Amino acid sequence: MQQAIEPPSTRKRPIPIAHLLLEAKRAAIDICAFQAVYFDVYYPPAAARDVKDECSIVKCTPTLVFFSGGGFLRGSRSSLPLNLAHNNLGAFFAAKGILTIIPDYRLVPSITFPQGSVDVRDAFQWVVKNSQRIEANSNHLYVLAHSAGGIHVSGCLLTPSLFEPVAKYLRGITFLGVPITISHHIAQFPPILNLRAACEPRLIRKSIYMFTQTLVKKGVQVEELVLAGHDHMSPIMALSSGYGGEWGDNVAEWILGARYLNLS
Questions:
Q1: What pTM did the predictor assign?
Q2: What is the spatial distance between Cα 94 and Cα 56, in angstroms, rounded to a whole number?
Q3: How far is Cα 84 from Cα 68, in angstroms, rounded to an integer?
Q4: Residue 23 phi, psi dihedral angles, 5° rounding
Q5: Residue 7: cis peptide before it, omega within 30 degrees of 0
Q6: What phi and psi, each to the nearest 5 degrees, are found at residue 118?
Q7: What is the pLDDT of residues 239-249, one digit of tens each?
Q8: CB 158 within 8 A of CB 143
Q9: Which ranges of 47-86 does DSSP label H, i.e. alpha helix?
Q10: Residue 232: which domain range?
Q11: Domain with 64 in it: what CATH number?
């Protein structure tokens, strides 16, 4: 199923002061390390975590793990310009009531395939192992992956030895601008939200479409959304800016809706 998200409004609006200093948008941040790979953990504000279900806050708060892009060669959990990316993403989803974790992963040329996907598997296992300490809900673990980060995530999902140890914890995966073309080795995937910018390069658009069709044929629950008015990089930079972040609202609603449907 394919839908289109409306382009950002062109009406000028004042930028809230909180967006000028992203520290004001995240309630707290915990910097953790595992085998020299660091994780930033963004905690939702107390108001966003004040759920009314008959369960504990940790149990009801979903956890999102984000893997950034960067062409395999560059990028990190906190990047240029001015270290706003991907701090803006962590702040955005935390403000929605979603505990958000952004790990680094190793870059080429210091690694070769499938070591990036091994880092993804290790990140999932770290979250599960440390869920009580960082207040993460490992029973409701969601993934958002952009570009090269999504290729590492897909490598983890499509490699049985990497996917099987973490499969039971994953409740949903969002790919953003991830060029994947496959025809086999699809296991029992969780629901997938496949996002592509309207102005993606042609080869990326084609591979995303083919990936969606392959998943549908294999019986995977998948939805494809087109982000009108965006290119390959702009969706990430739009979050917490006040412009063009509607796609993030859609992802948050998708995660929070699944949280109530699958509450355990």
A1: 0.84
A2: 18
A3: 13
A4: -60, -30
A5: no
A6: -65, -40
A7: 999 999 999 99
A8: no
A9: 57-60
A10: 2-7+15-261
A11: 3.40.50.1820
